[in-house]
User: What shape does this take?
Amino acid sequence: MQKRNPFFAPTRRQALALAAAPLMAGLAGSAFAQQNGWPDKMVRLVVPFPAGGPTDTSSRIVAQRLGERLKQMVVVDNRPGASGSIAAAQVAKGPADGYTLMMLATPTLLAPHLFRKAGYDVTRDFAPIALVYDLPIVVVVNPTLMPQVTDLQKLVAYAKERKGLVNYTSAGTGSFGHLSMELLKQMGDFDMMHVPYKGSAPAITDTIGGQVPVMFADLIAALPHIQSGKLRAIAVGSPQRVSILPDVKTAAEQGFKGYEAVAWGGLVAPAGTPQAIVDRLASEVGQILAEKQTQDKIMGVGAYARYLPPAKMGELIADDYRKWGQIIRDKGIASE
Assistant: This one.
């Protein structure tokens, strides 16, 4: 599986090399696109979630810079519903001409495992362009209800002592937090009962209120409450610690060797989009993500800029689709 390090701080020489790689890779695509007049009209970037979240905001940051570089408007089109599967099915059937793009995020990647008629195949119906961001997730507990639970091993011991009577919550059935905790339970041979909510906000509210003592949450949603002391972070799902919470260990550091759970988002186009256009877009996005201003803006919404070129993003799509699909099947999880 392609390992990702969204929190790696490159040296100046490495940063220049990273910025140059997509530029060199995209030269041929750029020449082809220019010769064929692409783009000569507005480009639409479909975001399969409501406005305001990290996927939408990251998309708008990239769309603005991409439009400036392409010298054409790149307009964000929000089409939420069914974990993004409604929009994804429409994009999959859209024209493969380089004028329709989509920000594929983890929930939409996994929706075909959860919805019987999602209407698309992520490994067949899309042309990967570039990974754009990683979104860390974190295990949090209510410190008043669980004063002794200060790390992951203590949570496991607490749950084992109570023989499955401990509840945990997430943003919903089949959410990434739900799947990530199920993988953790499987690797740690312990049990907790899942209490799903409809969205991160009510789940966090009830974790703070003590109705449910444990949650696997998006870092962006949980961070203010961690900083205020209302929630205690005891582990992050990424393979490396996150810079915002440097003292919180990863699950792998706490005995869960090989554990990795990172949500992400990346640009795709309908399958069949000319490779030269895909390469040109990948080159532009790679250079955009190499800009410190872009990195800072994306970090401002709780995500981390992370570039992968088309082939590597394709590997990531296939790996994560297979990995989390297996958890969904093993646990018999279906969307409500």
Q: What stands out?
A: The radius of gyration is 20 Å.
